[in-house]
Amino acid sequence: MNILIIGAGGFIGSHLSERILKDHKNWRVTGIDISSKKIEQILGEKNFEFIKADIMKDLDLVEERVKACDVVFPLAAVANPKVYVDDPLRVFELDFEANLRIVRWAVKYKKRLIFPSTSEVYGMCEDEEFDEETSNCVTGPICKQRWIYSCCKQLLDRVIYAYGIRDGLRYTLFRPFNWYGPRLDDIDNPNPGSSRVYTQFMSAIKHGKDIQLVDGGDQIRCFTPISEGIDALMKILENEDKADKRIFNIGNPDNMMSIKELAYKLLEEAKYDPTRREMADRVRVVSVKSSEYYGEGYQDVKRRVPRARAAPQLLL
Ligand code: UGA
Fold this sequence. Notes:
This protein has 316 residues and is α/β, with parallel strands linked by helices.
C-alpha cells in the first residue's frame, strides 16, 4: 500500500508515519510537510520518502502525490485555540481551503481518504457524552472567533459525507479527543497560549513558570495518549471494509478530568522526579480570566467527553 501523509512532520503525522513503517515492512509512506524536525529519526528509512512542500503553494506537486497514492491522510492544520482567536483567517485558509482541495483530489482520483475531524465539532453540546451519530454540533456567536476551527472542520465533515453519497468517495472521519504525548507542541516555549494545555503545563513546570488555569480550570477534558490514538488509526487503515463511510470519536471517557486536576497531577509527578523537583517547586497555580489569556474572541467548551461506543479499537 502507498500511503500519503500530508503533515507528516506534525504531532499525529510523525507518530503515524513511524508506526506504519514499523508495522508494515512492505508499505510505502510518502510524507509531505514544510518541516522535518519531528521526523529526523525516519528520514533514512527505505520505505519513507519525505517531500518538503507547502500545501498552500505547491498545488501541482501535492495533486500529483494524491494521484499516485492509495490512501491519503490530510493532517496539516492549525489546531491551537489561541490561533483560532488571533488569526482566524489563517485557520480558514489552511484548515478549510487547502484541505478542501485535497478532498476534491481524493474524489477526482478515487483515492481513499482518512480525514481528521475534531472533538471541537461538538462545541458546546450539552450531552454527557458526545455521540458521532446523535449529538448536535453547537457553536457560539460570530464575534467568538474561537469557533472558526470547529466550523471549518464541521463543514469539511459535511462535504466529505456528501461526496461519499454522490460520488462514492471512500472515507473515514476520525475525531481526536485531546491526544497528548511527545512532540505535541513546543515544550521549550512557555508563552501563554503557545501550546495546547498538556504541553503548556509541562512547559511551565520545566521552566519554573506559573501554571495558569483559565477561568479557574473546572473545564472537563478526556486526555488520550498518542499511542492509543495511533492504535485506533492503524485499525482504521487496516480495515477499510469496516471503517468506510464512518465517523469515529477517538478518546477515552475513563480518562476524564478537570484542567485543574491535570495541573496538580502533572505538578505532583514532577515533584517526585529529582531532575524536575527544583523547578516544580517554583511553580504556582493561578487563575486567569479567559478574556485576558485568549482575548474576547474566546469561548470555552465546559465539558468534553466522547461516547466511545464505536471506537475503532472496539469495533474492528
Ligand atoms: C483542543 C484544540 O482545539 C485542538 O487541538 C483539538 O481539536 C481538540 O481540542 C482536541 O484535541 O480534542 P481545547 O481542549 O479546548 O481544544 O484546547 P487546549 O489548549 O488543550 O485547552 C484545554 C483547556 O485548558 C481549555 O479549557 C483551556 O481554556 C484550558 N487551558 C489552556 C488552561 O486552563 N490553561 C492554559 O495555559 C491553557
